[in-house]
Specification:
Layout: E1 5-6, E2 9-14, E3 19-24, H1 25-28, E4 35-36, H2 39-48, E5 61-67, E6 71-76, E7 81-84, E8 86-89, H3 96-100, E9 107-119, E10 129-134, E11 138-146, E12 149-157, H4 168-178, H5 184-191, E13 199-205, E14 217-219, E15 228-231, H6 246-264, H7 269-301, H8 306-320, H9 323-327
Parallel strand pairs: 2-10, 8-15
Antiparallel strand pairs: 1-4, 2-3, 5-6, 6-7, 9-12, 9-13, 10-11, 11-12, 14-15
The structure holds flavin-adenine dinucleotide.
The site of flavin-adenine dinucleotide has 21 residues, from strand 9 and helix 6.
């Protein structure tokens, strides 16, 4: 069982700590589930289900090229070479595989995020609720992810991503300076965060316009080659984190792709290409609208204008936001996968 916290409430506040709105999931969206999971726990749980030595760590891809009829040749930084019939590119937002397939660089959207994990070895004191705090061009949030850890984030407007800061204590100070007069709970959690775990990320996305964006599936032009490549997750559809759906969509991609690809593997090259085509079509319909919606939500939440922010805090959040539609995009029915065969 994946260690997680089942979140039962959502509270929205202004930067001075005033409560703007509070929801109990049970009352306003019965059956709606929200789970907070630490990324490390999720990755270790997924990796733990694989046969030993399936994952080769510290193996950065240096180059990739079609290799005649034999497949696709991947060269790693440590000099190793891998010849693959099917390449699944799940190498994140700066994917070299997506670049090779013709995707443009993701676009910076005008805000950056700080993230961290507050640590409480003796037990964290917070309720299992998501907390959002809204300022002008600046917002923050926190949620417990385990009995001893609390995740927090800050999103702030910035015309450019700015220089890359490598000093961890400077990074944490930069984050604290942004919210120094904000609610004490947030500041306590940030202060309980080890410096070297604070991360700053420029937020980017890539809109998969039909007809303009390359397909996520590529096949070697050489008719006698069986080589194909496909991208999943952020490598294909980086989206801003404003809906908290990027990793969820990457997992959905993986489940759908595995469901389509597994039965095709025993068939011809045509069957494999058709399975990948189905994956591309099915997933595009899910990820393109989410990328657009995440971008729109981000622009609304990062408003700076004092009048617009007052409207958001006094009218929009207290009167117009409904929890059901607010979370409905998180629901996705995945087919169940066959369990992995144990040898
Ligand atoms: C501030 C912020 C908050 C977020 N919050 C949420 C949230 O609440 N919920 C949610 O669902 N999503 C959230 N996301 C999005 C989420 O982090 C990503 O969508 C998710 O990590 C994508 O998973 P992925 O496996 O596609 O890529 P990644 O998690 O980026 O994994 C890519 C992997 O590829 C490897 N790699 C990279 N380059 C190479 C190379 N050259 N060679 C070999 N390997 C390589 C990396 O080491 C890494 O292991 C958030 C993102 C940000 C920035």
């Amino acid at each position: 069982m994946l260690e997680h916290i089942s979140v039962c409430r959502l509270v929205m506040r202004s930067q001075d700590g005033r409560e703007l709105r509070s929801f109990r999931f049970e009352d306003e969206a019965p059956g709606q589930e929200v789970r907070a999971v630490e990324r490390r726990v999720l990755l270790e749980t997924l990796a733990g289900k694989l046969p030993p030595n399936t994952i080769s760590f510290s193996s950065r891809l240096r180059s990739i090229a079609w290799q005649g009829k034999d497949g696709t040749l991947l060269e790693l930084d440590d000099g190793r070479q891998v010849l693959a019939k099917i390449v699944i590119g799940c190498d994140g937002v700066n994917s070299p595989i997506a670049k090779w397939m013709g995707f443009p660089e993701p676009k910076y959207v005008g805000h950056c995020a700080f993230r961290g994990l507050g640590q409480y070895p003796e037990g964290q004191p917070y309720e299992s609720k998501v907390n959002y705090i809204y300022g002008r061009g600046l917002r923050a949030g926190f949620v417990p992810v385990s009995p001893t850890k609390v995740y927090w984030f800050i999103c702030f407007n910035s015309q450019s991503p700015g220089p890359r800061t490598t000093d961890p204590s400077a990074l944490k100070k930069e984050a604290l300076d942004l919210v120094q007069t904000w609610p004490q709970e947030l500041l306590d959690i940030m202060r309980n965060t080890p410096d070297d775990t604070v991360v700053k990320t420029p937020l980017v996305d890539r809109w998969l316009w039909p007809g303009l964006s390359p397909p996520p599936v590529a096949a070697a032009l050489n008719g006698s080659s069986s080589a194909v490549a496909v991208v999943v997750g952020d490598a294909w559809h980086p989206m801003t984190p404003n809906l908290g759906q990027g990793a969820c969509c990457a997992l959905e991609d993986a489940v759908v792709l595995a469901g389509k690809l597994a039965p095709a593997l025993t068939g011809s090259r045509g069957a494999v290409v058709a399975a990948l085509g189905e994956y591309a079509q099915e997933r595009w319909a899910r990820v393109f609208p989410l990328t657009a919606r995440a971008s729109l939500v981000g622009s609304l939440l990062q408003w700076e204008d004092p009048i617009v922010c007052a409207f958001r805090n006094e009218v929009m959040i207290p009167r117009l936001v409904r929890l059901g539609p607010f979370l409905e995009h998180t629901n996705f029915e995945c087919e169940l996968l066959e369990p992995i065969a144990s040898n």
